[in-house]
């Protein structure tokens, strides 16, 4: 049991609490101005030991800089390189410089909130630019995850990052091309014609298209198997699995299948279907000066990016009658809810059609006549 002992100081009587940690080692906490305050602390210690929630105050002197590198390394085991790299950048450039020397017990929720606000607003006088919502949320997430682990490991009672308000992300307006515009863009793309059509009619990601092999394209069934994805990490191409680690199969329209056959009619099974000039992965198209932007300008179509062709594929599929579940499978989303969240605007016409069909159903059930009779009686 904890004991309370009085002692004298130049400022008057003070109280010390002596107690044993769960491991049996004795320690104390001193400086309590009243015996009642010391006893309250002693009771708290004994209760926390009984409930298994005891936190050794000395562990709160651990710094964020001591925990950060180990936390970052643990993420390698379950994150793809393309997901891990932004976390490493956030830690190295923004989290470690600000929080590396801070002890866990010195961090308050208000401190973290002030930091988030500073990143969001920037500092014009200090020459610090405001960061976008995505960068702020990712950077905060690194610190929050480190503090959450510290709380779970009982280094601190609770994470001071919980309850912090974050900026909201805003989605940029999407650009949807028509069939006519897609084919005009494909014509203007020259040797990359098949690339444009593949992206616009399958919804595959740019990296998934770059990773296609000959064995993935079946002209007979007009199916393309998406088994791999290529992303650029630290200026180098890294090949891995598609997002969500799930392969999928998409069916291409007959006209697009013909273009694929024309592009690479006898591609070896293990060779890249859309290879670059050196036989490796197709090079990224540079903004402004790349072949894609030149094709957009030459075709005189709305400003769009290769990633935007994925949105176009979704729009064209919905206009052809694809439901949410089919669109989810085509795009490789984790759930239909995610598909609806991203492309809710494509289904506005469906709501109008549902209302129209309900009117027809009511008429068939005789509700129209009943309503008319009721209106006359009123």
- The CATH architecture of the largest domain: Orthogonal Bundle
Report the sheet with the most strands, covering strand number, pairing sense and barrel closure.
3 strands, antiparallel
Low-pLDDT residue spans: none
User: What CATH first level of the largest domain would be assigned?
Assistant: Mainly Alpha
Full CATH superfamily name of the largest domain: Intergrase catalytic core
Beta-strand percentage? 5-15%
**Spatial order of the strands in the main sheet?**
1-2-3
The backbone outline, from C-alpha atoms, is elongated
**Broad structural category:** mainly alpha
Mean pLDDT: 90
Number of helices: 15
**What is the fold named in CATH at topology level of the largest domain?**
hpI Integrase, Chain A
The residue fraction in helices comes out at 40-55%
N-C termini distance: 82 Å
Radius of gyration: 31 Å
Order of secondary-structure elements = EEEHHHHHHHHEEEEEHHHHHHH
Q: What count of structural domains? A: 3
What's the count of strands? 8
Offer a quick outline of the entry.
48% of the residues lie in helices and 11% in strands. The chain is mainly alpha-helical and 378 residues long.
């Amino acid at each position: 049991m904890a004991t309370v002992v009085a002692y004298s100081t130049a400022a008057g009587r003070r109280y010390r609490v002596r107690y044993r940690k769960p491991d049996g080692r004795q320690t104390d906490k001193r400086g309590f101005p009243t015996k009642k305050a010391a006893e309250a602390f002693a009771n708290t210690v004994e209760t926390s030991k009984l409930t298994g929630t005891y936190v050794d105050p000395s562990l709160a002197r651990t710094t964020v800089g001591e925990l950060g590198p180990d936390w970052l390394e643990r993420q390698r085991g379950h994150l793809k390189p393309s997901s891990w790299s932004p976390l490493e950048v956030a830690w190295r450039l923004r989290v470690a410089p600000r929080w590396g020397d801070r002890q866990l017990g010195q961090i308050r929720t208000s401190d973290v909130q002030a930091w988030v606000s500073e990143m969001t607003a920037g500092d014009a006088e200090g020459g610090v630019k405001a960061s976008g919502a995505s960068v702020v949320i990712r950077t905060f997430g690194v610190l929050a995850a480190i503090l959450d682990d510290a709380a779970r490991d009982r280094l601190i009672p609770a994470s001071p990052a919980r309850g912090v308000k974050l900026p909201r992300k805003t989605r940029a307006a999407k650009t949807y091309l028509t069939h006519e515009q897609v084919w005009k863009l494909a014509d203007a793309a020259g040797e990359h014609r098949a690339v444009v059509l593949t992206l616009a009619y399958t919804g595959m990601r740019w990296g998934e298209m770059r990773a296609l092999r000959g064995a993935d394209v079946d002209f007979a069934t007009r199916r393309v198997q998406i088994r791999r994805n290529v992303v650029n990490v630290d200026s180098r191409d890294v090949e891995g699995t598609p997002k969500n680690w799930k392969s999928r199969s998409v069916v291409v329209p007959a006209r697009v299948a013909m273009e694929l056959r024309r592009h690479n009619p006898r591609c070896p099974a293990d060779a890249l279907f859309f290879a670059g000039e050196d036989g490796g992965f197709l090079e990224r198209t540079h903004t402004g000066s790349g072949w894609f932007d030149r094709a957009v300008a030459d075709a005189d179509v709305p400003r769009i990016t290769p990633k935007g062709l994925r949105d176009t594929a979704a729009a064209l599929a919905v206009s052809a009658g694809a439901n949410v579940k089919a669109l989810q499978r085509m795009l490789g989303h984790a759930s239909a809810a995610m598909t609806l969240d991203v492309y809710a605007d494509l289904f506005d016409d469906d709501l109008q059609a549902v209302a129209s069909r309900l009117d027809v159903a009511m008429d068939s059930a005789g509700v129209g006549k009943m309503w008319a009779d009721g209106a006359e009686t009123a």
